[in-house]
């Protein structure tokens, strides 16, 4: 594969982003199906309210941090696409902890990365006064053996948990990130009260969407919308997601970029609510791991892309008939959701089977015995 300079990659990406934004403006103006997601309109409306000195939560369905509305205030007096350009432009343990706490406050779903981050802060890699050493990443090399079974056995040992879990780096990271999260949360609770706390955070923990979405759970939620879901129903929908997340973390945490990718794919696929904007969450992680995949575009790669796109287009066909034509196709839409889940599962399994396991850091013992650290 020909090498591309990072600066060139950024310039090409920025140009492509501008072209897509301009095309989106044209489609929003001339076509029945809008290019811009409805959530962006919600962001813009909330920013207009904040600019007028009002609460952004006066806009119904705004369920995000007030920071987001604040950043989009120029939408009101510069151009409605300001936020689109802003979103496209968007080290150490202490720095990482600060930004992680802020990101989780800003958008709650990155909380799923907390466990692999804490796992990778291994005492054999991170030690006080010693700089962690990056593993020499070479996609042409065979990857080291995945020790997920050994790690699982260690984590099930109470003595191992007591001895190694509470390291200085893990405690510092947890404390700093939690402090940043609660600092911003407390600030906006002081400004906007319970409305902020519920709409921006608590709502996402109990969210049920009776309208059609890609999730296989939408149809049951739609049929039972007039009554509250039982504890058993909530547990049945949450347990598969939780089990898959734990297994993925225990298996791939040392290969952090790949772990985050498969975590996100699984989290979106098994979530109670799944919309098209959620796909961006794992699309942005794909470039970080493709170089370590043995999957070829021909056959396996093509089959993954074809099944995933076909499953989505099949769902969108029924969604269009329901949303724009008013036809009663809820059952067909639910069947399409099941097929789309199968497509997502196939892609997830294929990514795992064809990935070369590549730990981010190398153990300090190994670098000291070798006489030199890999940079």
UniProtKB/TrEMBL annotation:
<keyword id="KW-0337">GPI-anchor biosynthesis</keyword>
<keyword id="KW-1133">Transmembrane helix</keyword>
<dbReference type="Pfam" id="PF05007">
    <property type="entry name" value="Mannosyl_trans"/>
</dbReference>
<feature type="transmembrane region" description="Helical">
    <location>
        <begin position="276"/>
        <end position="293"/>
    </location>
</feature>
<comment type="similarity">
    <text>Belongs to the PIGM family.</text>
</comment>
<keyword id="KW-0472">Membrane</keyword>
<keyword id="KW-0808">Transferase</keyword>
<protein>
    <recommendedName>
        <fullName>GPI mannosyltransferase 1</fullName>
        <ecNumber>2.4.1.-</ecNumber>
    </recommendedName>
</protein>
<dbReference type="InterPro" id="IPR007704">
    <property type="entry name" value="PIG-M"/>
</dbReference>
<feature type="transmembrane region" description="Helical">
    <location>
        <begin position="98"/>
        <end position="121"/>
    </location>
</feature>
<dbReference type="GO" id="GO:0016757">
    <property type="term" value="F:glycosyltransferase activity"/>
</dbReference>
<feature type="signal peptide">
    <location>
        <begin position="1"/>
        <end position="24"/>
    </location>
</feature>
<comment type="function">
    <text>Catalytic subunit of the glycosylphosphatidylinositol-mannosyltransferase I complex which catalyzes the transfer of the first mannose, via an alpha-1,4 bond from a dolichol-phosphate-mannose (Dol-P-Man) to the glucosaminyl acyl phosphatidylinositol (GlcN-(acyl)PI) intermediate to generate alpha-D-Man-(1-&gt;4)-alpha-D-GlcN-(1-&gt;6)-(1-radyl,2-acyl-sn-glycero-3-phospho)-2-acyl-inositol and participates in the sixth step of the glycosylphosphatidylinositol-anchor biosynthesis.</text>
</comment>
<keyword id="KW-0812">Transmembrane</keyword>
<feature type="transmembrane region" description="Helical">
    <location>
        <begin position="299"/>
        <end position="321"/>
    </location>
</feature>
<feature type="transmembrane region" description="Helical">
    <location>
        <begin position="333"/>
        <end position="352"/>
    </location>
</feature>
<keyword id="KW-0256">Endoplasmic reticulum</keyword>
<feature type="transmembrane region" description="Helical">
    <location>
        <begin position="61"/>
        <end position="78"/>
    </location>
</feature>
<keyword id="KW-0732">Signal</keyword>
<comment type="pathway">
    <text>Glycolipid biosynthesis; glycosylphosphatidylinositol-anchor biosynthesis.</text>
</comment>
<keyword id="KW-0328">Glycosyltransferase</keyword>
<feature type="transmembrane region" description="Helical">
    <location>
        <begin position="171"/>
        <end position="192"/>
    </location>
</feature>
């Amino acid at each position: 594969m020909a090498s591309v300079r990072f600066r060139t990659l950024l310039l090409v990406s920025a140009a492509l982003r501008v072209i897509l934004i301009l095309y989106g403006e044209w489609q929003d103006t001339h076509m029945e199906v809008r290019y811009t997601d409805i959530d962006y309109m919600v962001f813009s409306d909330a920013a207009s309210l904040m600019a007028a000195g009002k609460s952004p939560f006066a806009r119904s369905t705004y369920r995000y941090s007030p920071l987001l509305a604040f950043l989009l205030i120029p939408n009101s007096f510069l151009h409605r696409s300001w936020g689109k350009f802003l979103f496209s432009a968007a080290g150490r343990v202490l720095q990482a902890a600060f930004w992680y706490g802020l990101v989780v406050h800003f958008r709650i779903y990155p909380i799923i990365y907390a466990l692999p981050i804490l796992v990778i802060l291994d005492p054999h890699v991170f030690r006080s006064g010693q700089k962690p050493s990056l593993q020499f990443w070479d996609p042409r090399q065979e990857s080291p053996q995945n020790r997920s079974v050994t790690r699982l056995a260690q984590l099930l040992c109470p003595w191992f948990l007591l001895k190694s879990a509470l390291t200085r780096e893990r405690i510092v990271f947890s404390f700093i990130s939690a402090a940043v999260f609660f600092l911003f949360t407390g600030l906006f609770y002081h400004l906007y009260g319970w409305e902020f706390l519920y709409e921006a955070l608590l709502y996402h923990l109990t969210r049920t969407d009776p309208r059609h979405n890609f999730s296989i759970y939408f149809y049951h939620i739609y049929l039972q919308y007039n009554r509250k879901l039982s504890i058993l129903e909530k547990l049945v929908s949450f347990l598969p997601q939780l089990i898959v997340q734990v297994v993925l973390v225990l298996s791939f945490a040392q290969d952090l970029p790949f772990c985050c990718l498969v975590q996100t794919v699984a989290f979106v696929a098994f979530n109670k609510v799944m919309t098209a904007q959620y796909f961006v969450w794992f699309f942005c992680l794909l470039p970080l791991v493709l170089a370590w995949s043995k999957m070829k575009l021909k056959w396996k790669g093509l089959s993954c892309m074809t099944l995933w796109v076909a499953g989505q287009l099949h769902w969108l066909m029924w969604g269009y008939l329901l949303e724009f034509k008013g036809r009663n196709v809820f059952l067909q839409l639910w069947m399409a959701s099941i097929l789309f889940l199968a497509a997502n599962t196939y892609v997830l399994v294929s990514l795992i089977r064809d990935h070369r396991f590549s730990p981010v850091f190398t153990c300090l013992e190994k670098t000291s015995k070798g006489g030199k650290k890999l940079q």
